[in-house]
Amino acid sequence: MKSRHKKLLVIVLALAGIGIAAALILNAFQSNLVFFFSPTEVAAGKAPTDRAFRIGGLVEVGSVKRDAEGLKVRFVVTDTAKSMNVVYTGILPDLFKEGKGVVAEGKLGADGLFTATQVLAKHDENYMPPEAAQALEQAAKAQKTLAQ
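^ that's the sequence the OP posted. Answer follows.
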């Protein structure tokens, strides 16, 4: 094999290796990407049904129901326009309260029940997750538009 052919083979193999590495990295990135949706967007069918996503808003007052025998908790997340039932099995953050901001990560079931694998709560009086705050603002604008 000539020196020229060896160099060409090395270049082709290097490009193939770089292409494979890039494909693996992009695949890993895409599978770990989690999008945020408000209850209004989920009700409109914009949320994926086959992969995990985040839903955020306020925990509806009077909606938290704890299972007497385990760690299962059911609650309703609202953006003031639409509401969504959520079920979570695990220990909730200390700052999780009714009427406060929350972001839950999980999957939407065929029955419309959101099964959360992780629940995040706000960390002080003035903070709300940016996605949840934006969703609440959009829902309020939509309600004002409908009222006019």
